[in-house]
Structures are given as structure tokens and as C-alpha cells.
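Give me C-alpha cells for this 128-residue protein.
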Amino acid sequence: QVRLVESGGGLVQAGESLKLSCRASGRSISTYGMGWFRQVVGKEREFVAAISWSGAKAWYAGSAKGRFSVARDNVNSTMSLQMNSLNPEDTAIYYCAASEKCSGSAYCSDAVGEYEHWGQGAQVTVFS
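Here you go.
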């Protein structure tokens, strides 16, 4: 079983930065694709960023491109999301996810259904 735990959420002012972390435990996720998603109450969960199993490739939603950066450390089973220039539209619960389907692949889907393992989420609130 894979357990994912997010940390680093909080309340920040528009224009500031925040870094989320995700720690995996249980089964090794070193070959899994991993991603970040976010969800606002009453809306569907949406893709933010993902990274290949090796960390060599990363891709982003349009809203995150140029502002967010995803990275992973397979030795310590962690993944991070550095978020810069935050704005109130970034307010959401942020989820860490891992995809076994994407094991060993250079590219992983940005679809929610392609990720089998999820954390419980971390709240990010950005005020103007």
C-alpha cells in the first residue's frame, strides 16, 4: 500500500510564495509518475503539475506554467511543488497523487483517473 501525506499548506498574501511537500511511505514510489492536483469546493479536481518517475520530465497546467515548479527526490520518497506569484484563484485544497499506470514512463496523463494513490490534501489560501 502507498500512503501519501502533504504538508506546507497555509495562508499567504497575493504575490507571495509557498512550497508544498508530499512524503510517500509504504510501497516504493520511485518508479511511479507523480502529480499535484487541486480542488475548490463545488468544483472538479483539476490537474496542476506532474513529474515522471525519474524527475527528468515535468509538465504543467496552463495556470501553473511559469509560476509553479515540481520536483521529486526518490531517495527520500518526496515530491514538492514550489508555487510563486500566488493569486486568489490558486486558493484550493492541493492533493499529491501517484500513478502506478505511469510506472517507468517518460510521460504521465494529467487525468485524475490515471492516479491510483492520493493524499488527504493540504489547504492553500491566497488573499488579496
